[in-house]
Amino acid sequence: MEFSGNVYYKGKLRKGTLKIDDDIEFTDKIGNKNYGTLIPMPVNAHTHVGDSFINEEPVGTLPDIVGPGGLKHRFLDNADPHTVINYISRTNKFMENSGVLSYFDFRENGISGINAIKKSKRRFIRPLTFAGPYKNDDINTIINNSDGMSVSAISDMNYDNIYNISISSHKKNKIFTLHFSENLREDINKIIDLKPDLLIHGIVATDEDLDIIHEKHIDIAVTPRSNIFYGKRPNYKKFLRHNINLMLGTDNVFVTEPDIFSEMDFLYRYQRVLDYIAPEDILKMVIDNPYNFLEKHNINIKKGYLFFKNELLNEYQIVTKKHYFKSVNIL
Q1: How far apart are the C-alpha atoms of 252 and 330, rounded to whole Å?
Q2: pTM score, two decimals?
C-alpha cells in the first residue's frame, strides 16, 4: 500500500509517499492515492491494566493507594479472576480503538496476573508483560512466562532478592524493569547495580542521577497525568536535557484512562509555559523511543499505522487534537 501527504518517517513528518510492503520505502514525490497524514501506531510504555476493575475513588497519598498493602493491592488480592480478565479485555479494546499498537504492562499477582493478560480478549494489540514476584510463585516460572520482570521500588522488598531477580532475568535474556524515585529519591548506585533495562518515573531523581542513567543508556518511562493526580509536579524537560531516551505511559488504569494521545496532549499543555517541550519531541516519546527500545531488546512487533484521510496534519495537531480528526488503523 502507498500513502501520500504528510508521512512520519525516520523520526519526523515529511511530505512525500510511503510505500508499506515487506520493506518500507519513502520518496519525496506526492502521489494521488491514500492522501492525508500517516503515522506509526504509538506505544503506551507504562500501564497496570490488571487494576482496571477497581471502581473505588483512590483517596490518600501515593503509598496509601498503590504502595504495598495499599488500596490497589487489597483489591487485587481479593479480586474475582473473571472480573479482572473482563476488564483487561475492555482496556485492550479501548487502547485498540485509540490506535495503540502495544503496551508495556507491569503485572501484579505473579502467575495469575500473567495468565489474566493471556486470557484477555484483543484483536491486534500486543502487551509486553513485565511481572513481579508474588507470594510463593516460582520466580523462574514467572520469568519464563513473561517478557521480563518488574519491581515496584527498591524500598518495597529485600534488596538482595531484587538483585537475584535481576540476575535471573538477564540470564534468560529477559527485560528487567524498576520503578524508582517516584515519591522519594532513591540511591542511584543501588539502582544501577541492578542493571535495569527500563526505569519508571524518576521524577525526583537529581541531575547527577540522570547523568548516570544517561551514561548507562537506560531508558525511562514517565506518566504525567498520574503524577499530577498524586500532587507531583516535576519538570519533564530535565530528562531531555540529560538526553534520556524518554517514553510516555499512562500508569494505573483505575486512576488514569489508558489514552496515550491524552497523555501527549497533557504533557504538551503542562510544559508549554513551565519549560516548553516541542510536539515533535513528544511524538518521539510514543513512537521512535519505544520502537527503538523494542528493537534493542530483540522484540519484533510489526508496525501498524494511523491514517488521517484528506487531512494534512502537523505534529502540534496530532499531539493536541488527534480526537478531533478521524483516523483509521492500517495493520
Answers
A1: 28
A2: 0.96
